[in-house]
Amino acid sequence: MDLKSGPGDFDPTQPKRATLEEIEGVLFPNTLREHWGTIQGFKARPDDLLICTYPKAGTTWIQQIVSMVQHRGDLEKCNQKPIYERMPFIDMPPMKPFVSGVEQADLMPSPRILKSHLPVQLLPASFWEQKCKVIYVARNAKDNVVSYFYFHHMSKIMPETGTWNEFLENFVAGKVAWGSWSDHVRGWWEAKDRHPVLYLFYEDMKEDPAREIRKVIQFMGLELPESVLNQIVEHTKFESMKANPMANYSTLPSSLVDHTVSPFMRKGTVGNWKKHFTVAQSEWLDDTCAQLLKGSGLNFRTEI
Ligand code: PPS
After folding, report:
1. Mainly localized where (predicted)?
2. Does any domain span residue 109?
């Protein structure tokens, strides 16, 4: 697919950080505003598979797993294109040299694998109408917020973060791009009882990738031999993906991301938060998350 001739008013020589803007009660980069109607009007097809996550929860990891499953463990087929060309990010507005995620998806033959960070209540209605399968990955708040903080710095277009403590407070209050982490993980958790949603946890994937990848294979309605499963585990582990230019975002223009500030494939662990949180911040987040997730049945592990 040719992504080089797209429209979009983003000038890659003049990267500009987004500001936050509220759309339907949730904060997003202001660049989504103009594009919002197009996103909401997205035409899902019945055989679309949507990967949905809160940002920095393990999206790229599950994308590469799904891609490897789709290609029956054939890394060469996976590696024909960077991950963002294989799986359109439907929330993305047009940004030169890229067309919007919606336009990219519209041009794509079925079966499509799509990516979104939208909270459940803002998912385009056609996904529900078409009964599309969704794979959701959730990550514990502590590692998620640390990863998001670093991403804001390596990205040249995400909003300013303020200090680490300010960012942490904003994250918990939902005053960051794509809104509240707790509303997101909770909303999708509840949706899984009404829709075909496979809900996975980053920590489980880290603990036993083969077990979690088996769930993905089954959810996609496939059967693959153990040897292929082992191949998928091998090629989707952190070290493999970090070294894989088709999975590590190193092919994105440097006008958008700067891997020297912080690589996209940064640590890939459970528990890196311990290097960033004070004891007081950790206790405060534990208490706040307990309240925010109360009664949901959702439990997150912050170490494995
Ligand atoms: S994005 O921009 O929202 O799509 O980012 P996302 O891919 O969700 O999150 C990036 C974090 O996921 C880590 N990652 C992995 N961890 C373990 N194994 C594999 N294979 C893997 N691939 C990506 C990546 O390192 C980011 O987490 P941090 O904690 O920052 O390292």
Report:
1. cytoplasm
2. yes
